[in-house]
Amino acid sequence: MQIHVARNSAQLGIFAPEEIVAGLQSGRFLASDLAWREGLPAWTPLGDWPEFRGVGVPPPSPGAAPAEAPVASMIPWEQGKSLGSFFATIKQSVASPSILSTGRYAFGDWLVFCYVGVLISLPFQTINVLVFGDKNAQLADLLRSLNIPEVSKAAERMAHADPTPVWVTLFGTVMGLAFVPLMYAFFALLHWVGQRIFRFRISVERTAAATLLASTVLAVLMAPLQLLGFSFVAQLALSALFLIPACLLYFRALGAATGVNPWAQFGIYCFVWFVLCCCCCAAPLSLIGLSFAGKFAH
Q1: 14 has which bridge partners?
Q2: For 114-118, 138-142, 196-200, which range has the lowest pLDDT when averaged over its residues?
Q3: Phi and psi (nearest 5°) for 229?
């Protein structure tokens, strides 16, 4: 078990329990120092931890005022809005996601963060559209290679269809990216419902902000794949190759930001999408079933 220790808003480091015991005995750590480990919802004074209470220093007296939580976040983006702090936060989310637990997570801050990520991703999307144009021909070739008669017919129609004008594709790309942060926020709301079902009491704002953070980190890191637009197959292959690392990166960041184990967040995510898929598939299947029932009734 690794424990993060902070004093006066400054991170002292990550330590094993026995190191903290030795530090309390030597005076290196104080009972008022704040500590956090994975799974805890908030930072707590070391003197309040059962395993450290009374070690080296007396526990806080009942009448003493509780220790104040750090007022300053250790996340660069929450310390100041700049391009440098944006990339520092991306780096921190990959290298040291545990720091994300110190964030305030005001929704507006992270909505701006997500839009900055959209602007950074936009050039890659633009190059993809301007240089490689319509993808129908590439997709048609891929479908033909499957040698399935019905699919091959659809591929032929796709290959002979008029290509979509570049400006239309570009406009659609820009407008789509403009709504991406709002889409992330919507799915964060569904994820929050899943958290509540599994008895994780994380606020809606923190869940939405953490989702925007994790999604933006992933989107920025994956944006260069758009430069492989010359090969639809190459894009699919690399996307499959990076699927597991991308999931690990996303749920480590989401878990650290919300104080919930990443595997638990992954399970909640799978549950939410399973329910969504069941609901989305059940409605049309029910309509089809009713339609057939009506025909047989007549």
Answers
A1: 4
A2: 138-142
A3: -60, -15
Of 83, 90, 76, 72, which Cα lies nearest the Cα of 6? 72
Task: Measure CA 132 to chain center.
Answer: 29
pTM for the model:
0.64
- Strands laid side by side in the 10-15 sheet: 10-15, 3-7, 34-36, 44-45
Q: Which of these, 216, 164, 209, 195, lies nearest to 260 by C-alpha position? A: 195
Residues 6+ apart with CB under 8 A from 170: 126, 129, 130
Distance, C-alpha 126 to centroid of its chain: 24
pLDDT, one tens digit per residue, over 92-116 is 999 988 888 888 899 999 999 999 9
DSSP string, 23-54: HHHHTSS-TTSEEE-TT-SS-EEGGGSTTTTT
Assess contact for 117 and 33: CB atoms under 8 A.
no
DSSP H or E run through 229:
none
Going from N- to C-terminal start, the domains of the chain cover 1-72, 82-287
Do the strands 10-15 and 44-45 form a parallel or antiparallel pair, or are they unpaired? unpaired
DSSP state of 66: P
36 has which bridge partners?
A: 4
Q: Write down the H helix ranges in the chain.
A: 17-26, 76-79, 83-95, 107-132, 136-144, 149-160, 166-197, 204-222, 232-241, 243-258, 262-297
CA distance 74 to 82: 15
8-state DSSP, 199: T
CA distance 167 to 221: 26
- Residue 240 φ then ψ, to 5°: -65, -40
Each residue of 201-254: pLDDT tens digit?
888 999 999 999 999 999 999 888 777 755 666 667 777 788 889 999 999 999
